[in-house]
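Before the break, one more example. Copy the sequence into your notebook; we will annotate it together after we see the structure.
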Amino acid sequence: MTNEHFDVLIIGAGLSGIGTAVHLTQNCPDKHFAILERRQQVGGTWDLFRYPGIRSDSDMFSFGFAFRPWNELKTLADGESIRQYIGDTAREYAIDEKIRFGIETEQVQWCSAQQQWVISARDLDSGQARHFSCDFLISCTGYYDHKAGYLPEFPGVERFQGQCIHPQQWPENLDYRGKKVVVIGSGATAVTLVPAMAAEAGHITMLQRSPSYIMTVPAHDRITEVMCKFLPNNWVYKLSRRRNIAIQRWIFKAAKRWPQGTRRFLLKKVAKQLDDPAQMKHFTPTYMPWDQRLCAVPDGDLFSAINSGKASVVTDQIETFTETGIRLTSGQELEADIIITATGLQLQVLGGTQLQLDGKPLDINQRMTYKGVMLQDVPNMAWIFGYTNAPWTLKSDIAAQWVCRLLNHMRAAGLQVATPRDRDGNLIAGESMMGALQSGYVQRGNTVLPRQGRAAPWRLLNAYEQDKDMLLQEPIEDDLLELTEKASQLQANTPRNVRAA
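Here is what the structure looks like once it is written out:
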């Protein structure tokens, strides 16, 4: 049975996968690597989601790669622009030549005797089994199931005579012109869909069980536009990126330190944008800011749609679907030709790939993450996981750089295997790595995610400044990272830790 071997294999050609591959190309030019991608093109999330208005929920100066400036002035970029940006990056750095498209990874197994990962996959076009091996494995698959989103069991859903759509499986060329549309949800997807569809729909209603915090951001970065007239572009990019990162971190820190004051500030901003004060009941959450992610809307487009009368918000619970729409527990009935269930994600780790160590399945939800990059007791494997309280790419960029530092250190020291070991019982069994968020999808997925530890490096810091120091400045070696020589060099069957010079 044929087998292709690589120094490094990356699973996933989305934002994290392409970024990690560029870092490998730049920092580890001696490494022979490839990317396995289930889809037929790059983009990951941004190739999967195709619903109207799909856009980033972070500004692009900080959401884009640190090594390749985002040079447009639209603050929240649309999905097509982001797909183009990822694709252009892959071509510019010749990463596209290293991607194996249409390959679905089914199982990855660490073989201690050979000190390698053995990967079982399938070619989705031919159905044939494919086999790979590598010295170091990097998962860039994100944290949710790309095949299916979360869909609650709605009573009477089979009675509905119209179209029922989940945004993750958006039908091509959906005609909603002049139709009555109900969007179930109050998160980022819902607040994006409503203004995007309002102009052409007959009327669109956002049906939410409870409100979310919504913050308006400028659609066009005028400060950067002015700076471009006086400063070199590379200066402008660095300054704008640094500014936006600082603003985001300040908002998050303020929300945690002064929750009531931050709450008043956010709600006051919303109130100024609504013509009808009675609408504030739909935008006043019961939780504190950043207990769940904030939703960003460019130039308050959601509020403009509501003020125009083309869109409305209803806060209630569903009693049952009917033939013509939805009946609520209050007795109100919402008529609909199309119902969109923007009900969230289904969490999944490693893209659904089964993980084994020497033939034994490993439960990821019983392990902690080491520096948010490796998994406890799992050799030579990194999991590139971005921020959930800041632009994803800020963390994925520095995590990939740390992996490159590790690989270079191992090569220089003649080491073959790196395995994080918990020596002090740091595990907190009931708390997942995303436990700081109270979002529904996080609570539902708590049982599949890695655990938190009592302290760093087993505990996620969710703090860009501290993470940069830990991943880019601190020595690679510490008492928790077990480093082992190549099997042929070992004189005894006992791993040794080699101290940094």
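The first strand starts at residue 4 and ends at 11. Residues 491-501 have pLDDT under 50 and may be disordered. Try to locate both features in your own notes.
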